[in-house]
């Protein structure tokens, strides 16, 4: 049984902060089929299209019939733990610091045997439920959980390396004026975050929902306008060393594409708010987060972006906005690479139009801000990298994979 | 036992067992160690380097070199060349190929050499870059290397067959006793069962004295025809039989037997001997539990009786079952691919009667085995050979 983790004590500023190390990173190209699955929280294995056999580790030909048709497909997660061991003196810095480290060999019901990290409650001879996770080097690994829920399951030491659970961590929600921002604050608090900092630009201006933030235990309002470089730097100077999870809730939605607008003033605002705001936040908070990736129970853990799913395919009705989101998506990949040495995850939530004022004229289905907030917490707890929230986002994802040209034509309506 | 359909080795012999004494760490390169072994081969056999017309090399730490680069490096011109990357099965595989080469007269004198260096960081680099499956699906899981992989196998084997740590420990303790008579063994202190049992855990159930010590060193021997040995006045051992098998029993969910179990009947049938005829046995002892598995798979007892077998026998030089007489890799050290050669070269010395302080009296029939390449969840390569000395 897992002992519940305890909140970390106040940090002694005289002690050196443990620097992050990465677990072994090299993988074959084929093996990144697992990375793709892990990014979305799916459990996929290669399955032979010719003979139906499942295979593991990643292969280039089926070991049963030599067919090259090995597709990654969603696979049954159940298996049995055949044998376990505890590595006590690993040869690698990351694991040596975290030893003893427990691994095991699992015989999957669907055939293959898989070496996996073990949740502490897994027992030899018993059934396990397998998942693919992204480890601190950002690469996919297999993780075995006990088949049934156990007490304090999420507090498992090895599991917590695979996730960015908000429990006892400190989060910054960058824009608390929006409903999404306010819901995110509430969800993070409910998930056990120790402190949620919430950015409000020009805090003397009243705003709807203000009472949900002011004077609440564990919620601290900070004056933050992400589009203003100095504002972002000032806040980071104050709390940058205490931000373990950053949730970028910058929202700047305006309708229109190219020809029905005059000039670039609105486009400039869109870029200022969304894209340059992202850069300001990254430069202000990123370096400290990257350094604090192994800093105990409340190490820095994740950066969350809420992006429009139209970052992936332009929606001409909100064409310039779509482009600003595409720019942010591209930047998020850069940020992911730069935060990776610190073991800090970058999670992108793709949403369809939210049920907020700037999408007033858009017909349903629309995504409730609370659903987005719950998705943030669920993604952090499961260590995801990409989430599609709501029916519209999921549909765009599928149609983009099926035929991007069809999607492009059909978004032009 | 099955009747072998393979051609016998007829007049193939092995000569000039060479061991370049091991060191824990070396600032020299693998090429330096292999060069020393070749030089010692030539000196011991009383031949010129130019008499060597076949070369077979194994090494983990040669960098970008393979056998071909070594021909120019060492100034030897050969008409038969091989590089064998089979880890602990390299010596048996090299012997098999060289034997057929000299038998078919593709070559007259084949030098089989394995050597590795051990820089301070080279063992970790070998672990990291071992194989694709290892890189993708083993090393990222705790980076325990072979210790963790064999720990899983050992744990399953010990539970399945009711084997205790003490049973396994008998093998390690006996080998240390043998090693104390070998001046070249890196381990020079006696090992008691109490010390074995109280050693620190490395990757449960593998503890410190279950593990080999990575080191630098080289081993070598010559393969030729009887007539060649006679013309050189060389004392040589006859090759009676060999087996080799890779990726055996792939459907076993976990490894409880090696490829020997597929071919052991042929090993003894081809040699025309029985297990109890053997004077000495040299197994591949990267972990003592793997040795116990070999006692079963090589026909000394049935599957699951390995523990009882080691309880019933004295595995030391003066015992009733002399085994790994030099001390084996567990006590001499594991010099990379040379670890594959250690048992075969010692077995050759034994049947030639030149093993010195570790000599088993009247030893004339030896078995040596190899095991290697834990690519993913099991050792893939296995092999064995039976040699007969001139007195037999």
Notes on the structure:
The complex is a heterodimer of chains A (413) and B (392). Chain A has 413 residues and is α/β, with parallel strands linked by helices. Chain A has 2 domains: 129 residues, no CATH class; 242 residues, Rossmann fold, CATH 3.40.50. Chain A contains 11 helices and 15 strands. Chain A has a 7-stranded parallel sheet with strand order 11-10-9-12-13-14-15, with helices on both faces. A 5-stranded mixed barrel of chain A has the order 4-5-6-8-7. In chain A, strands 2-1-3 form a 3-stranded antiparallel sheet, covered by helices on one side. In chain A, β9, α4 and β10 form a beta-alpha-beta unit. In chain A, α4 crosses α9 and α10 crosses α11. Chain A is globular. Chain B is α/β, with parallel strands linked by helices and 392 residues long. In chain B, β2, α2 and β3 form a beta-alpha-beta unit. In chain B, α7 packs across α12 and α11 packs across α12. The radius of gyration of chain B is 19 Å and the shape is globular. The mean pLDDT of chain B is 96. At the A-B interface, β4, α2, β5 and β6 of A face α4, α5, α6 and β5 of B.
TL;DR of this structure?
By secondary structure, chain A is of the alpha/beta class. Chain A has two domains: 129 residues, no CATH class; 242 residues, Rossmann fold.
Can you lay out the helices and strands and say which pair or pack?
The complex is a heterodimer of chains A (413) and B (392).
Chain A: H1 32-39, E1 44-48, E2 54-55, E3 70-74, E4 78-87, H2 93-98, E5 101-108, E6 113-118, E7 127-134, E8 140-146, H3 157-160, E9 170-173, H4 179-190, E10 195-200, H5 210-213, E11 219-223, H6 229-239, E12 245-248, H7 265-291, E13 302-308, H8 319-339, E14 345-351, H9 369-382, E15 386-389, H10 391-402, H11 404-411
Parallel strand pairs in A: 6-8, 9-10, 9-12, 10-11, 12-13, 13-14, 14-15
Antiparallel strand pairs in A: 1-2, 1-3, 4-5, 4-7, 5-6, 7-8
Chain B: E1 12-23, H1 30-45, E2 54-58, H2 67-74, E3 80-83, H3 90-103, E4 109-116, H4 122-128, H5 132-137, H6 145-161, H7 165-179, H8 193-197, E5 201-203, E6 206-207, E7 216-225, H9 226-232, E8 236-246, H10 260-271, E9 280-282, H11 288-297, H12 306-312, H13 328-332, H14 338-352, E10 365-374, E11 379-388
Parallel strand pairs in B: 2-3, 2-4, 9-10
Antiparallel strand pairs in B: 1-7, 1-8, 4-7, 5-6, 8-11, 10-11
Helix pairs in contact in B: 7-11, 7-12, 11-12
């Amino acid at each position: 049984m897992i002992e519940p983790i305890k909140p970390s004590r106040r940090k002694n500023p005289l002690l050196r902060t443990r620097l992050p190390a990465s677990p072994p990173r090299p993988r074959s190209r084929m093996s990144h089929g697992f990375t793709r699955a892990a990014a979305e929280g799916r459990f996929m294995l290669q399955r032979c299209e010719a003979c139906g056999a499942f295979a593991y580790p990643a292969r280039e030909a089926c070991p049963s019939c030599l067919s090259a048709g090995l597709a990654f497909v969603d696979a049954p997660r159940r298996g049995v733990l055949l044998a376990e061991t505890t590595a006590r003196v690993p040869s690698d810095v990351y694991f040596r610091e975290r030893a003893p480290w427990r691994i095991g060999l699992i015989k999957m019901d669907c055939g293959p045997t898989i070496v996996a990290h073990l949740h502490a409650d897994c027992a030899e001879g018993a059934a396990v439920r397998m998942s693919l996770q992204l480890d601190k080097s950002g690469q996919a690994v297999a993780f075995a959980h006990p088949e049934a829920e156990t007490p304090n399951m999420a507090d498992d030491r090895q599991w917590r390396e695979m996730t960015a659970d908000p429990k006892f961590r400190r989060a910054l929600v960058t824009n608390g004026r929006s409903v999404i921002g306010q819901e995110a604050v509430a969800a993070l608090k409910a998930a056990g975050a120790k402190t949620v900092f919430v950015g409000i630009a020009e805090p003397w201006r009243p705003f709807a929902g203000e009472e949900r933030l002011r004077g609440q235990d564990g919620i601290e309002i900070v004056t933050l306008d992400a589009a203003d470089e100095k504002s972002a730097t000032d806040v980071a100077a104050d709390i940058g060393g205490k931000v373990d999870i950053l949730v970028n809730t910058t929202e700047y939605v305006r309708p229109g594409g190219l020809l029905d607008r005059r000039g670039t003033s609105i486009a400039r605002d869109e870029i200022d708010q969304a894209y340059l705001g992202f850069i300001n936040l990254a430069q202000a908070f990123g370096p400290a987060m990257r350094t604090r990736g192994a800093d105990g129970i409340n190490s820095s853990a994740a950066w969350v972006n809420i992006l429009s799913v139209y970052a992936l395919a332009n929606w001409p009705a909100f064409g310039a906005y779509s482009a600003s989101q595409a720019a942010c998506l591209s930047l998020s990949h850069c940020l992911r690479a730069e935060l990776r040495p610190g073991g800090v995850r970058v999670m992108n939530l793709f949403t369809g139009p939210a049920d907020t004022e700037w999408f007033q004229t858009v017909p349903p289905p629309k995504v409730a801000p609370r659903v987005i907030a719950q998705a943030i917490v669920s993604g952090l707890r499961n260590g995801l990298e990409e989430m599609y929230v709501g029916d519209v986002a999921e549909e765009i994802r599928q149609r983009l994979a099926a035929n991007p040209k069809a999607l492009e034509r059909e978004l032009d309506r | 036992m099955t009747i072998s359909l393979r051609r016998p080795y007829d007049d193939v012999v092995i000569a000039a067992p060479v061991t370049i004494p091991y060191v824990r760490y070396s600032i020299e390169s693998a090429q330096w160690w292999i060069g020393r072994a070749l030089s010692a081969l030539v000196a011991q056999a009383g031949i010129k380097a130019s008499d060597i017309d076949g070369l077979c090399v194994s090494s983990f730490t040669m960098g970008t070199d393979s056998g071909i680069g070594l021909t120019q490096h060492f100034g030897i011109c050969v008409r038969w060349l091989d590089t064998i990357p089979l880890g602990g099965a390299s010596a048996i595989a090299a012997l098999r190929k060289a034997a057929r080469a000299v038998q078919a007269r593709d070559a007259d004198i084949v030098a089989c050499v394995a050597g590795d260096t051990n820089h301070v960081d080279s063992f970790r680099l070998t672990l990291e870059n071992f194989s694709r499956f290892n890189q993708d699906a083993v090393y990222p899981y705790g980076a325990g290397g072979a210790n963790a992989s064999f720990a899983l196998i050992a744990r399953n084997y010990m539970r399945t067959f009711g084997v205790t740590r003490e049973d396994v420990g008998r093998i390690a303790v006996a080998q240390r006793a043998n090693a104390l008579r070998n001046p070249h063994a890196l381990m020079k202190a006696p090992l008691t069962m109490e010390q074995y049992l109280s050693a620190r855990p490395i990757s449960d159930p593998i503890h410190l004295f279950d593990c080999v010590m990575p080191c630098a060193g080289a081993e070598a021997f010559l393969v030729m025809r009887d007539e060649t040995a006679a013309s050189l006045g060389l004392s040589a051992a006859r090759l009676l039989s060999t087996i080799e098998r890779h990726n055996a029993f792939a459907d076993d969910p976990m490894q409880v037997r090696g490829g020997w179990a597929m071919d052991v009947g042929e090993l003894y049938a081809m040699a025309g001997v029985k297990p109890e005829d053997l004077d000495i046995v040299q197994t591949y002892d990267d972990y003592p539990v793997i040795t116990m598995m070999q006692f079963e798979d090589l026909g000394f007892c049935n599957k699951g009786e390995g523990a009882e077998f080691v309880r019933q026998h004295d595995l030391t030089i003066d015992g009733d079952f002399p085994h790994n007489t030099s001390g084996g890799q567990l006590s001499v050290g594991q010099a990379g691919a040379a670890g594959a050669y250690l048992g075969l070269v010692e077995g050759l010395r034994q049947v030639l009667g030149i093993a010195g302080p570790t000599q088993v009296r009247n030893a004339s029939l030896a078995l040596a085995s190899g095991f290697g390449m834990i690519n993913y969840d099991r050792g893939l390569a296995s092999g064995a050979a039976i040699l007969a000395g001139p007195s037999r």
